[in-house]
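User: Need the bound-state model for zinc ion:
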Amino acid sequence: MSELRDLYQEVILDHNKHPRNFHAVEPHSHEADGYNPLCGDRVHLELQVNDEGVIEEVGFQGDGCAISTASASIMTEALKGKTVEEARALFERFRQLVTEDDAMPDPDMGKVAVLAGVREFPMRVKCATLAWHTFDAAIREEGEFTAE
Ligand code: ZN
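Assistant: Bound-state model below.
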């Protein structure tokens, strides 16, 4: 288990150091700003969703802790090519994974599951879910999300 943990740690550190899809998306159909006042994490998310409801392009910008940056980076990789519906279903499973003690990652969750460890640190759950809530706000056209 500790080897697995080291691997997870490595993935998180890598995505924090080299965030994927860290850029604006032009043109974009959806955008939102997320803020986690408990940690000071800020994320700006832009997505291009096509007429079939497929997320063609997604990028984020902002400034936050290692967990929030890594989670946003991993999320953008996971969302690209998914339908909005599939993406929302993944968000729900991710939310369960980081908040429910007995939730187990499905193999098809991929890298998203590396953040499961944050559930041992309730403060960090808000960092890990910020990008996902911001995605949800963008799709709902609410424009912004603030963690409470
Ligand atoms: Zn944070």
